[in-house]
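Backbone shape codes:
***
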Amino acid sequence: MAEAAPRFPSDVQPPANPVFGVLPLEKLRELDGIDLFRGLMNGTFPGAPIAEGMNMWIHEAEVGRVVFAARPQQRHYNPIGSVHGGFTGTMMDSAMSCAIQSTLKKGTGYTTLEYRVHLVRGLTDQIGPVFCVGKIVNVGRQVGTAEGHLYDASGRLYAHGTTTCLIFPI
């Protein structure tokens, strides 16, 4: 039986006064994955620079599951009047790969080897916030796989996909 679609708050807003930047590699080596996400969520660490242009932030994080939220805007549109598919792809890549990263121990990193996204319907700036749920499927010593689903606040599905990530010491 299929899992019920999750519901999210329709009035969610990005964090107030976010700071964006890149953590030094030395600092990343000191953090396990979930501690990194906790620090990103509480403002201890700067958000990823890509998140600024995407109007995207981490909404929830636990080991094996990370949820990104975003508010699509007209600046994310393609010439035909809807949000560019790359917006969805970036949200999916972020949530799925970060679900894998949330399981990693100190001194371990990852990179996306490939991801696949199936667009179910188009996004517009009228939808309100969207949420991408990334969940691990399997994390081994060298390879992790995860799945993702992109929903609006009412639980309507917009995209689904999978990723494979390479895991390595940093």
Observations:
- Residues 25-169 form a domain with the Thiol Ester Dehydrase; Chain A fold (CATH 3.10.129.10).
- The beta strands are 56-62, 65-70, 108-119, 130-139, 143-152, 157-169.
- The longest helix spans residues 85-101.
